[in-house]
Amino acid sequence: MQKPKYQLIVDFIKDKISKGEWTIGSRIPSQRHLAKMFDVNRSTVITALEELMADGLIEGKAGMGTIVTNNTWTLMGEQSSTNWNEKVTLGIHKPSISTVQEINEAESNHHLIQLSKGELSPEIFPLEEMRSILQKVSNQMTPFGYEEPKGNLKLRQAISDYLKNRGIDVSPSSILVVSGALQALHLISIGLLQRGSSVFLEVPSYLYSLTVFQSMGMELKGIPMDKKGIKVDSIYQTKGKGKSILYTIPTFHNPTGTLMQKNRREELLEYCKREQLPIIEDDVYRDLWIDTIPPEPLKSMDYYGSVLYIGSLSKTLSPGLRIGWVVGAESVINRLADLKMQSDYGSSTFSQLVAMEWLSSGLYDQHLETVREQLKVRRRTALEALNKHLSSYATWEVPTGGFFIWIKIKPAFKVKRLFDKALSKGLLLNPGSIYAEQSGQFIRLSFGFASINEIKVGIFQLSQIIKDVDD
Amino acid sequence: MQKPKYQLIVDFIKDKISKGEWTIGSRIPSQRHLAKMFDVNRSTVITALEELMADGLIEGKAGMGTIVTNNTWTLMGEQSSTNWNEKVTLGIHKPSISTVQEINEAESNHHLIQLSKGELSPEIFPLEEMRSILQKVSNQMTPFGYEEPKGNLKLRQAISDYLKNRGIDVSPSSILVVSGALQALHLISIGLLQRGSSVFLEVPSYLYSLTVFQSMGMELKGIPMDKKGIKVDSIYQTKGKGKSILYTIPTFHNPTGTLMQKNRREELLEYCKREQLPIIEDDVYRDLWIDTIPPEPLKSMDYYGSVLYIGSLSKTLSPGLRIGWVVGAESVINRLADLKMQSDYGSSTFSQLVAMEWLSSGLYDQHLETVREQLKVRRRTALEALNKHLSSYATWEVPTGGFFIWIKIKPAFKVKRLFDKALSKGLLLNPGSIYAEQSGQFIRLSFGFASINEIKVGIFQLSQIIKDVDD
Ligand SMILES: Cc1ncc(COP(=O)(O)O)c(C=O)c1O
Ligand SMILES: Cc1ncc(COP(=O)(O)O)c(C=O)c1O
To answer: Which ligand is closest in space to the CA of residue A320?
Structure first.
């Protein structure tokens, strides 16, 4: 005889609780979710939950859903810890965390048209080259153990050569290999900045940078941008020196796509020098120029060791590599390396060797050419579709690199409703509100990830949705 | 005409300063170091430094060496940051940081006999299998991007199966893939523990755990051990619940090699349950048993989700993989996953795929058999040599797994002098003082890394040095 269906649910939940996977105080999945999971009616779920409540294992709490309450002792997690998600309530920027989570989940749904993802399309992934590099790494492999604190020396040499081509002349001892640009920001936050110090940054700015700085107790101070980049005369410091830092994405800014002009770069450096304001230059999109080579990095004009420069292979090759770098004054790099040792003891040897081969073999530069061609085609497709379908509802700037178009929807339309409606129709976009409160009327559209056809269809759908939402 | 040699040194240093690699306040290399670097006499170095001093670029400071002092503005690093190395001054444990640094540097010297390294010998590295796995990963590779927050699902499934064989029954959703066990400790410290909370741990304990907990502002409370493991009746809590946690390495403890007995494990769990003291179980040495399978993990007897369990492939396969895992209540794992996302956006795809193949193909278990045979031979070699040469100067316990022997040198001999002497003769050992003040009379000898012959020679040399130092 088969067990009744509600019993399956009861057993499932009891098992989760008894194994300690669902602890006291944690919320169990919603009735709707459980019904879907077990393919039963809502009423069957309710029967199951009632039995568990009678057993004293769970309890409904107003406004909190159903909570585990079995009478064993509570665990550390519930008692003492910081809830990182809850902590992210920003001053100037108020990202709507629930929307971010919704996007994160939706991003793994392959049935959606992804106009949100900040990474290159699988179509552009250089599979053959990656295989041949893995082959080479495998052939040349010798037994390996813990890597050097700053990262594999050959990789750092390759990065040093790479940077030379971009105007930055540093030796390998001033380079730290990190597991992606985000780790660089994390290490800087926990190791160099003081709690309560201020971070000046563009409004809007890269979403996770906000989270990282905030989690470590920094105060964010948003600076507006114009078409030439961050507005230098809007930066003013409220605190004495040593307490502030500037974080900027001067080249193909995320999410706006803005490219900081050469004279603006000079003005910014001049200002920061005068005000003794150190700079974190996040330059992960530099290699994705489409029209012309962008002005040289701030770091290339930094004669005082005041710029910490960050790069990565995530946006051009693959984020799965988890390889990036930080470049700065040797003493600062030493400190960050020490901290990196304490946090994960160095990056994966495989990833380091693969990255080294890409950079030093010249395959990386070849690959960039393909990427640029692809981005050119995709951008054209996106702009054509935008011009055709959206010109009466929205405005935008043409990005000269990167893969984001920052679209301002006319005030008559509610972007949040538009986002929900689009999602329900299978189209994923990033609403501007997740980057900054002030950006509520914007959406970030990525033309890097979806296929050409999806870009066309997606933008057309978007225009239809806008019309509908308007009705 | 060639430049005079001193000019080369001047140019080198000016270049470092002007590029901002050596910032104001940073110490330049010692005269001895520079002389070696440029293959010149000390007097040539002095000429160069005098010229730079005359230029106002550097200055000698009493007790601090020569410092960069050029009159540009100081950078963030010097102003506001935490010096992580300096911060590590422990209460109960007082690791001698300079000795640790000396060891770290000496560990990359291939001419030394390495009886210090906590990793397996390159001789045991499974190069052929690693190559064939890389081959397979390469063949099966598809374009990849950012991984799931908790790590590749197939890898988590493989870890779940692996853990089942070790008495721990958890689903992949309660497992977080991390970049090594150390990262697990780092994430726990920054995400779950509160500043000022107490960490109970064995005295002595794993060196980097001390640093991680301390860096995050935890207070360390050392608990003595006996032959059966941590002494449960020495644990007492001074603060209320939610403020303390216990960190333990029950299986082949680092550095002592102690294996916690089954009844001691039960006693510990019972105590922690009663006192509501959550546990971090660091079990990275479990698979390195030599004689018999060790008692099951604490986690296998944890019915209340109070144990966070940590494992890793570093000690059995290679630390270069940077793959480990944390297992715990789902809500805690979710929180740690969120934090992992914020700190590095997941571990390397390559490493995850390689680890998955090792675990799921059965090659890992086969490899463990080889490792155990090798460790058995190495342990025998070490013990024979110890018995032959050191029995009148020292005492030790025979470890039943792992690769450390914790040797107590008779009080008549100064271990610090012994360490220095040994190093100068090409023999690297870890003095107990780096783990705990109380362990000054111990040395940790690893039989995992050096070759069989080096183990013999090294231990013989050690006995000679002890005799000499005694004179
Ligand atoms: C501006 C910026 N910096 C850093 C990152 C993170 O890159 P990585 O994958 O190298 O950590 C991103 C990714 O979205 C980004 O947009
Ligand atoms: C007890 C213990 N935990 C954790 C680690 C770090 O291991 P991983 O390389 O996985 O970060 C070590 C390495 O020495 C160790 O001895």
So the answer is: 1
Q: What is the C-alpha separation between A31 and A39, in angstroms, rounded?
A: 11
H or E element in which residue B54 lies? helix B42-54
Determine the topology of domain B103-124+367-468 in CATH.
Answer: Aspartate Aminotransferase, domain 1 (3.90.1150)
Mutate to test the interface with A, among B133, B279, B343 (most CBs of A within 10 A): B343
Residue A216 has what pLDDT?
78
- The per-residue b/e assignment along A11-29, b for 16 or more CB within 10 angstroms, e otherwise, is eebbebbebbbbbbbbebb
Check: CB of residue A144 under 8 Å from CB of residue B320.
Answer: yes
- Select from 3.40.50.620, 1.10.10.10, 1.10.150.20, 1.20.1540.10 the CATH code of B5-90: 1.10.10.10
pLDDT score of B92 more than 50: no
Which fold does the domain B127-365 belong to in CATH? Aspartate Aminotransferase; domain 2 (3.40.640)
What pLDDT, in 10s, does the model give residues B251-300?
Answer: 999 999 999 999 999 999 999 988 878 999 999 999 999 999 999 999 99
Residue A104 and residue A430: Cα distance in Å, rounded? 10
Q: Do domains A5-90 and A103-124+367-468 have the same CATH topology?
A: no
Index of the ligand 1 atom closest to the CA of residue A249: 1
pLDDT digits (tens, 9 = 90+) for B391-414: 999 999 999 999 999 999 998 888
Q: What is the pLDDT at residue B79? A: 33
Tokens of A269: 């450096």
Ligand nearest to the CA of A282: 1
Output B81 or B175, whichever has higher pLDDT.
B175
State which ligand 2 atom lies nearest to the alpha carbon of A345. Answer: 11
Inter-chain residue contact B19 with A191, CB threshold 8 Å: no
| ipTM confidence score | 0.84
pLDDT one-digit tens code per residue, A337-347:
988 988 999 99
Q: Residue B255, preceding bond cis, omega within 30 degrees? A: yes
Residue-wise pLDDT for A172-206, tens only, equals 999 999 999 999 999 998 888 877 788 999 999 99
Closest to B299 measured CA to CA, from B311, B288, B307, B310: B307
Rounded to the nearest angstrom, the distance between the alpha carbon of A181 and the centre of ligand 1 is: 5
Domain edges within chain B = 5-90, 103-124+367-468, 127-365
Ligand 2 centroid–CA B27 distance in Å is: 32
pLDDT tens digits, residue range A17-58?
A: 776 678 777 888 989 989 998 999 998 999 899 888 877 788
- How far is the C-alpha of B314 from the C-alpha of B301, rounded, in Å? 25
Chain B residue numbers touching A79 (CB-CB < 8 A): 241-242
Q: Is residue A298 within 8 Å of residue A281, measured between CB atoms?
A: yes
List the structure tokens of A52: 């568990």
How long is chain B?
471
A78-A82-A83 Cα angle (round to 5)? 80
Query: Which of B335, B185, B194 lies closest to A85, judged by CA?
Result: B335
Q: Do the chains contact at A138 and B135, CB–CB below 8 Å?
A: yes
Q: What is the CA radius of gyration of chain A?
A: 25
| pLDDT per residue as tens digits for the range A75-117 | 333 333 333 233 222 222 233 467 887 888 788 888 999 999 9
The C-alpha angle with vertex A174 and arms to A168 and A177, in degrees rounded to 5, equals 95
Give the minimum alpha-carbon distance from A77 to chain B in angstroms, rounded to a whole number.
Answer: 6
The closest CB to that of A21, out of B191, B330, B342, belongs to B330
Q: Which two tokens stand for residue B294?
A: 């060790």
Q: What is the rounded average pLDDT of the residues A390-400?
A: 97
**Which residue in chain B is spatially nearest to A276 when comparing CA positions?**
B73
Cis peptide before B204 (omega within 30 of 0): yes
What is the spatial distance between Cα B223 and Cα A351, in angstroms, rounded to a whole number?
40
Model pLDDT for residues B148-183, shown as the tens digit of each residue: 889 999 999 999 999 999 999 999 999 999 999 999
